[in-house]
Amino acid sequence: MEFQHYSVLLKEAVEGLAIKPDGVYVDGTAGGAGHSREIAKLLTTGRLLALDRDPDAVKTAAERLSEYPCAKVIHANFREVSRVLREENIDKIDGMLLDLGVSSFQLDNAQRGFSYQADAPLDMRMSREGLSAKDVVNTYDAGELTRILREYGEERYAKSIAFHIVKQREKAPIETTMELAEIVKRSMPAAARREKNPCKRTFQAIRIEVNGELDSLSQALDEAFGCLAPGGRLAVITFHSLEDRLVKQRFKTFCTGCICPPDIPVCVCGQTPRAKLVYKKPVLPSEEELKENSRSKSAKLRVLEKIKD
Known about the structure:
By secondary structure, the chain is of the alpha/beta class. It is 43% helix and 14% strand.
């Protein structure tokens, strides 16, 4: 199956980076190389490093970027950007993009185990290594399962779902996506089961846990900001409220100036903003894009520009 990924907010994200032909850029989530190709097209003497933790994406991105000498594809998690830059003898970069969406290839390839709409082994590993969804579902206790379903899925029936998962695996291990989906549905009242995607929150929560997505994002935001040269930009596309909240709060930290108490007439902390927001509000997909790709409906683009180290 060919690796596909609709590049959400493609034009807006590339414009937000304000590409300089001689600049150095990192696409931290290369995927199907959609964003990477548009960046590479704008470079002359500049460089592009396209990173991805998924070996399937790395192979595809390398093929699709082969016509651009400025581009290099590297198998790495975006939170490792500082290490990657050291190994490439790059001091500072002019921009970095993070598209946090799960690729269409990962969702539509049933064998990857991301989807609750097709039967497949429980997996959900973006890197194809380490902890799997099967491990989480069959080894976490009820308290741990409840926590991740509440925190990462914002699932209101988390306790009931966790209880039924534990009861079911006492009979036999839970092996497939459809087995898990049926357990989730049985754990909800009838009205909730009639929702369009009653399993979405549970599968999201387990996927986030398996891939350490929020921890990786938190680390990546700090790493990326530290790697930016003054004037460099960081663009992030999020797809759910947990990601967006984290990005919004971290951007606010980077852009915050004086933190002295309001009753002190003169600043004594000496803190000044290290960055500024390029857009005061997140950029959303256009009506045209929403018609082309319904999966873009929850996407939000936030961009900041570094002022100083």
